[in-house]
Design a protein that fits this description.
The protein is an alpha/beta fold and 394 residues long. 31% of the residues lie in helices and 15% in strands. α9 (305-314) links the parallel β10 and β11. The longest helix has 17 residues, at 47-63. 43% of the residues are buried. Bound molecules: S-adenosyl-L-homocysteine (SAH) and iron/sulfur cluster (SF4).
Length: 394
């Protein structure tokens, strides 16, 4: 493990709001089952009834998508009135929804404190992926990432994380209808934590939100349909396996420490050897299949044949898929996308070594919804282009 450079502070010291995040009643959304139980008891539900009440309220919230206590018809009227008195059902507010020519939908959501985050829905043949954010901005400063240029950072609450899934289900009209047979094809069949922020710097809230999303009596997405992407927060990787158990993706992006230090500065804290050590353990700990290695293709920086060969050597023995991401440009970005022929040559070397090496088609580029392009529109204190270039070391 290499020491952290004193000139590039890496901090996870960001604001986490308490559950009662704004003046007003506590929000029922985002509470885990045990927390919901506690909240109901604190509000006067007799302990003997608590388990049943939790089950009922849970189903209304997360199976039926109900937002109005009065619609919870298997609860007595006085109990419903008591809930309405004590609690709220509060979701992020949709500020704008943009729909790309390719069908990708980008939602700009407003959360407590007037902050904004983005969520992206990507429909594909036979599946639909919702890309959700875990923080407003990101404390890390990967030099190719637009989110990393945003100064302001705050952790999202569990409610704001699960709320992104619920808001998208609202927009896609995906909640079940009483009496109707359940739709087999789910519009949101997969969730990826690949939006704004580093999910492992907001571990507890991400874990609680994913536990709600995975719960079989609610949204009920299998853990194998959730992928968490990390830039390499090594100490939290084993915990992710044990406490969430979802699939893991890692923003690898380079095959030497020298280049990775420049692209993904967290590498100065946990270098390639430390990262690979944690990744080797992941499949066993989580009982899951392959790890996805994300690799952004930057012209002349990390895209040579030699890089491809080094990559294959480094990951030997890890069940893996290499997802090659053509660099998505943003205003002032200090890199260029590798040429298509170069990306294909790189993919070919990786493929011949026995790894799937799909090239990720950029989606929603016309609405700046592609990987690494997300950034709050209202964000004011932006980094200067010169700072970005200095961090990139180019
Ligand atoms: N913070 C987490 C998750 C969000 S980023 C992480 O870094 O893993 C999702 C993926 O998009 C990451 O692999 C990220 O490195 C990549 N990415 C960021 N900016 C990009 C850009 N401009 N073009 C292509 N991919 C980018
Ligand atoms: Fe943060 Fe991920 Fe962007 Fe790096 S790539 S700045 S970790 S969001």
């Amino acid at each position: 493990m290499t020491a952290q450079s004193p000139t590039t502070p890496i901090t996870q010291d960001v604001l986490t709001l308490p559950r009662k995040d704004v003046a007003g009643k506590p929000n029922l959304i985002g509470l885990t089952r045990p927390q919901l139980r506690e909240a109901l008891i604190a509000a006067g539900t007799p302990e003997a009834q608590a388990k049943m009440r939790v089950g009922q309220v849970w189903q209304w919230l997360y199976h039926w998508g109900v937002r109005d206590f009065d619609a919870m018809t298997n609860l007595s009227k006085p109990f419903r009135a008591g809930l309405a008195e004590e609690f709220e059902i509060r979701l992020p507010e949709v500020v704008t929804r943009q729909i790309s020519a390719d069908g990708t939908r980008k939602y700009l959501l407003r959360i407590a404190g007037g902050h904004e985050v983005e969520t992206v829905y990507i429909p594909e043949e036979g599946r639909g992926t919702l890309c959700i954010s875990s923080q407003v901005g990101c404390t890390l400063t990967c030099s190719f990432c637009h989110t990393g240029t945003q100064r302001l950072v705050r952790n999202l609450t569990a409610a704001e994380i699960v709320g992104q899934v619920m808001v998208a289900r609202d927009d896609l009209d995906e909640w079940p209808v009483p009496g109707a047979t359940r739709r087999e094809d789910r519009l949101i069949s997969n969730v990826v934590l690949m939006g704004m922020g580093e999910p492992l710097y907001n571990f507890e809230n991400v874990r609680d939100a994913m536990q709600i999303v995975m719960d079989g009596e609610g949204i009920s997405l299998s853990r194998r349909r959730i992928t968490l992407s990390t830039s390499g927060v090594v100490p939290e990787i084993a915990r992710t396996a044990q406490e969430i158990g979802c699939l893991l993706a890692v923003s690898f992006h380079a095959t030497t420490d020298e280049v990775r230090d420049r692209l993904v500065p967290i590498n100065k804290r946990w270098d390639l050897a430390a990262l690979l050590g944690a990744l080797r353990e992941y499949p066993r700990l989580s009982n899951s299949e392959r790890i996805t290695f994300e690799y952004v293709m930057l012209k002349g920086v990390n895209d040579s044949d030699e890089d491809a060969r080094r990559l294959v050597k480094l990951i030997a023995g890890i069940p893996a898929k290499i997802n090659l991401i053509p660099f998505n440009e943003w205003p002032g970005a200090p890199y260029e996308r590798s040429d298509w022929a170069r990306i294909e040559a790189f993919a070919d070397i990786v493929f011949k070594a026995g790894y799937a090496s799909p090239i990720r088609t950029p989606r929603g580029e016309d609405i700046m919804a592609a990987c690494g392009q997300l950034k709050s529109a209202t964000e004011r204190g932006r980094k200067r282009a010169s700072e970005i270039t200095a961090e990139a070391g180019v």
